[in-house]
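Notes from hallway chat w/ T.B., transcribed later so I don't forget. T.B. wanted the structure written out for a chain they're using in a teaching module, and asked if we could keep both sequence and structure tokens in one place. Agreed to drop them here.
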Amino acid sequence: MTEWLMDGIPRNIADNPDMDVVGRIRDSLRRDNGQTCDSSMLAPCPFCGCDQPYIQTNPLWDCTEEARVVCPSCHVATTRDGQSWRVSYQGDDVTRTLAIGRAISRWNRRAERTCRNLLSGQYDGETFKCSECDYACEVAIPEEPEPYSWLADWHCELPAYCPNCGAKVVES
């Protein structure tokens, strides 16, 4: 279930964090005001290509921190991912850093997954259907000089990534 986490981030309470990974996460943070921060470890937005996504963090209770990544351009965001237990290493509280690492892992994982368009060459009101999550939607079809001439041989601009699951569209 958590195989998408970057190495060194604990999968459960019995695991210890890799302090080298914690250090790399901390070193990657820029403009950290306690609620939002930027990280050089974040990949560009899979939907609009914006290269400035940011991380929102939120402390919950005494033992939990949660974080999510947000694109400032198209406002797509990951689900909130939390570090659900307080983690200290030699007196250093790394709970927030681990929550940020989990959010970075979730944001970056979509580049590894791929899908195909199951509706290639057909048109029935929808022009894209993801082979991974079965999400279907209509993709904007470029205007043709003659009305309806695209029905015989239409070509549309497929999304680079599935709008639902984030898998990279590799072929039709």
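Follow-up for T.B.: Residues 2 and 26 are 21 Å apart (CA to CA). Might be a good example for the class.
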